[in-house]
Amino acid sequence: MAGAAVLPVAVFGCRPAVAGGVCFLEEQVVLHAAGAGCLRLHLEYKWHNFIPGTEKSRGVQALAVSPDRRFLAVSEAAGEQPVLAVYELAAERARRRKVLATDELPARQTVSLAFSPDSRFLAAATAPPEGHLACWLWEKQQLAASVRVPAAGDGPCQVSFNPQDNTQVCITGNGFFKLFKYSEGYLKQMNLQRGEPENYLCHAWLSEEEVICGTDTGKLSLFETGNLNWETSLEYRKPPRELKEDTTTEEYESGLASEDNGLQQHSLPQISAVAAYSKGFACSPSPGVVLLFEKTNEKEVYKESQEVWLPQDLFSTEPKKSSRQDITCICFSPSEETMVVSTNKNQLYMFTMFSTKLKTSYFAYMNFPLHSNSITGLDMCIWKPILATCSLDRSVRIWNYRTNTLELCKEYQEEAYTVSLHPTGLFCLVGFSDKLRFITLLYEDMHVFKEFAVKNCRECSFSNGGHLFAAVNGNVIQIYSSITFENVTNLKGHTGKVHAIKWSADDAKFVSCDTHGAVYEWNLLTGKKESECVLKTCSYSSISLTYDAKIIFAVGSDQTLKEISKSSIQHEVPACDVVYTTVAVSHSGRTIFVGTSLGTIRAMKYPLTLKKDFKEYQAHAGAVTKMTVTSDDQFLLTASEDGCVFIWRVHDKEGGRVKGEEEFKYAEEVLIMRSDIDGKSQAILDLQISVKDLQTESDYELRLKDLYCEGKIKALEENFSLEIDSLKTKYQILLEEKEKQELQHQVQLSELIDKQAREVQQLESQRSRKVSTEDEKYEELQVKSQKMEEEYEKQLHSLEESKTKAVAELKEHYEKQLKDKSVLLEEAKENMRKQIEVHEEMEKLIYEEGDKEIWDLKVKYERQLVEEKESNAQLKGELGVMNKRLNTLQKELKDRNRDIEEMRLEQQKLQDIIKSLKKDILALKTDIKERTETILEKEKHINDLKMKNQELQNFKFVLSYRIEEFKKQIESRENDIETMKKQISEVSNTHLASATKPVMEEELEQFRKESIELKLNITQLQQKQKATAREVHREMEKKQDMETLIKRFKADLHNCVSFIHHPRKMKDSICELYTKYVHQSDVVTEDADLQQQLKKQQEDNERNLTILRKKVMKDKEMHHTAYMRISMLFLQENVSLIKEINDLRQELRVANAQVHSLQSALGLNKNKQAIQDTAPSSELLSSPDVLRLNPEMESEKIIEMQQLEIQYLRDQIQERNQKCHSRVDLHDPILFH
After folding, report:
1. Which helix (H) or strand (E) holds 1018?
2. Each residue's pLDDT tens digit, 699-709
3. Residue 252 CB partners (closer than 8 Å, separation 6+)
4. Model pTM greater than 0.70?
């Protein structure tokens, strides 16, 4: 036998559409259908106990638990015949007790089961419309009774026992509600159905006589002893969140009202599930809600008390739709503290009863959300005990197989086809229908870090070292670096779609298989094939490698397990009429696990043998899609099309020891976004602040309360002390009064005792007198009774004598009547004999006449027969001729029919061609319209560009004119400077500097103003240059955008080429390309004239653009050279002027010193005061101090002047910018084309 055994330790999944699919075994233990069996789940401790089904089971159809919760009945679909099995639940592992034979029943599918109250009988209802109700004595495997229950059509059917009566059975379905009584091997109907038949979807017993039923029109009907007692109709319910949203705005309300009307037309209220509890019952009238009804004493027997809604799934892309699931089953715990429901999307929810008294409440997940569709991907990592799954329900989930919990879950917009976990467990790869995404696994979320343009990626895998990952793109395997995300290599060579890929332990080798029967081994260093094994008759679905990567195990469509090594198949193990879908090898290499299309798991020992040497385990209800073994060989993980994930513990029976849990410690690190940390830290700070505020408030309130209480206590103490004093005085007074009353009572007691003695004596005397009178009366009555007895005896004797006389008279009378009747009978017998004789004579006469008539008819018909035989012979000859004609005509008819059919086919083909041509014509017309529009737009853009060119030429002309003016001004200024120099020299010779100084200062101010204006002109020219540079930059950006668009188009074209072997997909992908790029690129049509015109227009536009660009560049160069030249001239002029000013100042100082020395030599110092009085202006102007003022004052004045110039320049820049923006707004279409 196989060297390893596996045991299921956890199951993540639920099977939908099972009658009685969820039920309680204990207060915290729930049983529900999962995979190909049932699962026992503890709500608090989270342990799982799987009950596998029978051999070749395809899933549970219905289940029922006995009232004492000791037995489980299961109906399974296994092969052609269904199976009814009963399990005993007392042991830790459920044991199959009995399997009931269903050959005696005509139907194949059992849709509902129910145990009797004493668990002796098992009722089974088979599928309508030709349904049967069977009652089994299951312990004896004996069919006790069976009855046919015809239905009006298909639909659900339910059966149940009366909770107090073992012999009364109720069954409901499409068009019937029937009560049966079991007695002496028969099921007899008890009720007569009245009124129009309803489609009853479910029912439940509320008491020994009451049954509540739900219909597909939202009606609740209460039957009492088979008769309708109460009926109500429920409305279609909307979630309370949607009702709140409806009241926000009137427009939104009207829109939602129309949508809700449409929804109600398609989904009318229907009672999908009903369950009873002690106070009443629960039912589901519309998707996502359960209503609780309680019993009342009013006319309405039951009244709605609470509504419980399914919660919105926050991980879903459509949370509102996630809460609108059909509830298929409702059950209550034994103490009725918990209610559990199952839905049509494989989900389980629970609700704690009586937890809230609100009108509306919400369910919670029983454990966590489960997959609702086929699982397409599964993978595990080394650092953490987690596994990742993805499904066609568009969700990705991270499970912990040690704690049996769901750690992360997220739903996306697209379907997920494959998933791979990084060895660290911090990242994962997911292949969606549109892209391949690299996702980081955060503490509470999944964050898409990088996206790759790989569509419909069905397989991806990280390397064992985690530094590389592989992704399948059709028949090409792309290898990427998980650090730089660069495409390292592409492995090309497969002709079919790649179905599976595997890395070797050292990441040096890579193995892949495809649908065309090829298994390739790749060398990643060279990117080439090292070995190959091709078997075209097999389409491989999965492969696995040994730890040393020397042996490859592969499974496929040919129902064999292949052992491949050295480019050849070494062994082939047959699958025994089952298709192997997946394969996995333990790291020790001693055990091989295989998944089948029936959902079973097989464990085989290595080396393989040709015998049937394996252990088979019932697990899934669909084909096993993925399978893997953990790195420590302790667990086997499997996933299936039924949406269930199984975790198996591996027990190695051979010598090899499985690694213990203590040998490997798993990592506990998690990733978290910095924004989340900041948000949480901020929330913690806010909470801490609020806690401090609350503490201070509470302390303040407590102090106030303490003060108030202390004051109250003091007041109460004072009041109580006063009251105590008053009560003490009252107490003393009452004591004195008490002593006085005691004395009075003693006196009164003595008097009363004397009175009582006297009254007793009187009563005794009266009693003795009455007794004597009563004795006398009794004696008299006895005498009267004796006399009465004697009289009654005499009357009885006389009555007996009269009775005997009357009986004798009656006997005589009736004997006379008998004699008369006997005489009459004899007379009647004689009359009968005579009539019989007459009748016999008449019969003889009639027979004789009939014989004569028969003979005449016989002769007549014989003659007719001869005539008809002759006519028949003639007709046969004619018939032969007619048959020949008929055959020829039929042949001609067949030929004509064939011709007609061929003509019809040709006509259909031609019509299809005409339709396609019409579509092409319409498409071409639309293309022509679009092209004409684009041509007109381009012509407009060309005109705009011409206008812009003209404006630029005008600007150029203006600038050249201004430059010439500036040159003339510069020449004139040079002439002025020369004249100024001459004047200064004359002033120095004639010592009249005082008169010429103001003129020079005025001229200097004029020069400064002109330099400022020149600077402003330079800034204007620089701004224009920047605008042209912006235009060039925009053109470059447009060019880059076009290059990126071309790259994308090439990538999409490459993806299109991968579908070259699939014409339909190729066509669809080309259509997608057309719709995606038709508005961005020029579509080539079959019209040659249009193509030529477009080419000519494009060439003209390109020529114009090149000419304009050259002109713009020349203008730029001219502007730049002019600017540089003008700036250099201005700088040179400024420098020369400053030098000349400094020289003049020095000359003035020297002249003033000479004048002063001459005056002192001539002895004019005496008249200094007078000269100052007569000519103050000349001295002040000629003094060097007055000429240069103060150096500090001069610097301050210079700073003020510079600030004013800066402010003026800023104002000019703002005005120019506004003008440029207005011009850019006007010429935007030109600039951006």
Report:
1. helix 993-1057
2. 999 999 999 99
3. 245, 246
4. no
